[in-house]
Write a structure and sequence with these properties.
By secondary structure, this protein is α+β, with helices and mostly antiparallel strands. The chain is about 15% helix and about 40% strand. The chain has one domain: Immunoglobulin-like, CATH 2.60.40.1120. The protein has one helix and seven strands. A four-stranded antiparallel beta sheet has the order 3-2-5-6, with no helix packed on it. Strands 4-1-7 form a three-stranded mixed beta sheet, with no helix packed on it. The radius of gyration is 22 Å and the shape is elongated.
């Protein structure tokens, strides 16, 4: 004979709260901007500085492109951004009105 487990509402309520908190904490209210930087001939540009500036708050985050010309600026608060790319020997490039949305990746190739 197997023992019976008796669950009551007072036992299930804390369990439900823990499970709900786990699901809510997994949601993010941020997004990312990523892309590839190339020169006018299509060659990748490594080591370029890429800055993403939130036009509503002024928050700015920067990174550099890797050997393949790729970059990612992650965990950005949602909102409108301006992306600026700079590398010595090149004219700086600016892309405006890049909208970062919840849990999204916005691609901006420059």
């Amino acid at each position: 004979m197997q023992p019976k487990i008796k669950l009551c509402k007072s036992t299930l309520a804390p369990l439900f709260i823990v499970l709900l908190a786990t699901v809510v904490s997994a949601q993010t209210f941020r997004g990312s901007i990523l892309g590839t930087v190339t020169d006018p001939n299509g060659a990748v540009v490594s080591g370029a500085k890429v800055s993403a500036k939130n036009l509503a708050t002024g928050l700015e985050r920067s990174t550099t492109t890797d050997d393949a010309g790729n970059y990612t600026v992650a965990e950005l608060p949602i909102g409108p951004y301006e992306v600026r790319v700079e590398q010595s020997g090149f004219v700086p490039s600016v892309v405006s009105n890049v909208t970062v949305e919840v849990a999204s990746e916005r691609r901006v190739d420059v």
